[in-house]
């Protein structure tokens, strides 16, 4: 069973997400928090497989809670998917830098929410497609051309597809390779770029305008 925790200051949202999670045969809801301070304490105590965090919460916002649970230097990071109404660029960028294992808008629908939880568990990271497109246009200035991070052409192919939000299985299908080969490439990419997860890989690709 995938153990899921929810943090949102709106009771209706927590109930709605809880019903979606509870309807999945392989998932269970193990805790709900109404603010960031409570969310951090609960996540550290319960150690969920995946936590769903809103951004704007009382006492501590979701981005700071995310940083404490999954940010740089955290020894045993929790997989946190940010699910929010607010898709401002600075929020998305900070969430990625703070170790988010996905970024969804609340109007993405139940299917995408469930897919994001499963993706986080398997080491993938799902980003709402509309956010991905806008990040490509506005996130940050282009890096100097020719900065390929020492990646091979095939590794760059994998990175570009991962940055568009494709899962390992979808990348394998597109490139006519096995899922195991995709994971091997991503592992090599993480080492070369010093990235802790595929979200950081995607951020690297977006910043260099590698995805058209």
TrEMBL record:
Residues 3-121 form the Response regulatory domain. One of its GO terms (biological process) is regulation of DNA-templated transcription. Signal peptide: none annotated. Keywords: DNA-binding, Phosphoprotein, Transcription, Transcription regulation. Gene3D superfamilies: 3.40.50.2300. The modification 4-aspartylphosphate is found at residue 54. The keyword Nucleus does not apply. It holds the Pfam family GerE. The keyword Transcription applies. CDD domains: LuxR_C_like, REC_NarL-like. One of its GO terms (molecular function) is DNA binding. PANTHER family: TRANSCRIPTIONAL REGULATORY PROTEIN NARL-RELATED (PTHR43214:SF24), TWO-COMPONENT RESPONSE REGULATOR (PTHR43214). This is DNA-binding response regulator. It comes from Actinoplanes auranticolor.
